[in-house]
Amino acid sequence: MLLTFSKGFRVSVSKRILALCLLPLLSFVISGCLSEEQSPPEIIGSTVRTVIDPVIVPKAKPVVIKKPDITDIPADWIPPSYLEDKNRWKGIVIHHSASAYGDATHEHKYHLSRGWDGLGYQFVINNGVIKNGYGKPDGLVEVGYRWRQQKTGSHCRANGDSSNYWNKYTIGICLIGDFEKTYPTQAQMRSLAKLVRFLQQRYNIPTSQIRGHESVKPTKCPGRKFSMTKFKQML
User: Fold this and answer.
1) 174-191: per-residue pLDDT in tens?
2) Global confidence as pTM
3) What is the distance between the terminal CA atoms of the chain, rounded to a whole angstrom?
4) What is the pLDDT of residues 108-158, one digit of tens each?
C-alpha cells in the first residue's frame, strides 16, 4: 500500500526526529559540565541527594622543640673537684640585668658599688650589645668567681630569710638585657637552656626548682618578656 503525507506533516515529523536525536547529545554536554564542578547526585528511593566531595585538611605538623646538647661542655663550667660539693646545689634562680648592655665585668663593678664583695651571680649570659667598653658576643656564657671558688652567691635573698638559703644553695644566672622592654635573644635562650640542663644533670636539680627571681621576693626580675613556661619546655 502506498502511503502519502502532506508537506506539513512531513516537516513536523522531521523536527520531532531531529529533536529526539539532539536530546542525548545535549544531555551528555550538560552532564559533562556539571561533572567538573561536583559529584553526580545520589538517588535514594525517591529522594535525590547531592554528594559533595570531602575537603581534605592536611594534618598540622607537631612543633618540635630541640633539646640542648650538653655533650660539649666548656671546661670552666665545671668547678675544681677539690671544692665541688654535688649535694650542695638545690635550685637555680634566673635574673636579668635590667640594663640594655653589659657583661660580667659591668655587673661586677655595679655590685661593688652597692657594697657587695663583687659579682653576685655565678654565671652571666651576654646579649651581644657592645657599648661604653662593655659587652660580649651574643649568647656567650661568662663564669663568675663565685662559681669557680664555689662561694655563696649574692643574687637572691628573700625578705625575712635569716638563713640566706637562696644565696647559699641556689645558682644565680643573669642574662644581660632589660626584659621588661625587650625579649632575650635566641642565642641567650639556647645558652641558658644548655647551661641549666648541664647543672640539672650534674647536681640532680629538678625542673620545679628552676625559678625566676620574682618567685622568691617581690621584684620584676627577670622581666615580663621572659617566659619561664616556654623556657622550661626547652629543657
Assistant:
1) 999 999 999 999 999 999
2) 0.73
3) 104
4) 999 999 999 999 999 999 999 999 999 999 999 999 999 999 999 999 988
What is the domain partition of the chain in residue ranges?
75-233
Give the burial string for 140-167 (b: 16+ CB within 10 Å, else e): bbbbbebbeeebebbbbbeeeeeeeebb
Q: Find the radius of gyration of the CA atoms of the chain.
A: 38
CB 175 within 8 A of CB 127: yes
As its CATH architecture, domain 75-233 has 3-Layer(aba) Sandwich (3.40)
Residues 197-216 pLDDT 10s: 999 999 999 999 999 999 99
Query: Which residues, in sequence order, are bridge partners of residue 65?
Result: none
Cell numbers for 207: 625542673
In SS3 terms, the chain reads as CCCCCCHHHHHHHHHHHHHHHHHHHHHHHHHHHHHCCCCCCEEECCEEECCCCCCCCCCCCCCCCCCCCCCCCCHHHCCCCCCCCCCCCCEEEEEECCCCCCCHHHHHHHHHHCCCCCCCCCEEECCCCCECCECCCCCCEEECHHHHCCCCCCCCCCCCCCCCHHHHHEEEEEECCCCCCCCCCHHHHHHHHHHHHHHHHHHCCCHHHEEEHHHCCCCCCCCCCCCHHHHHHCC
Q: What is the pLDDT of residue 134?
A: 98
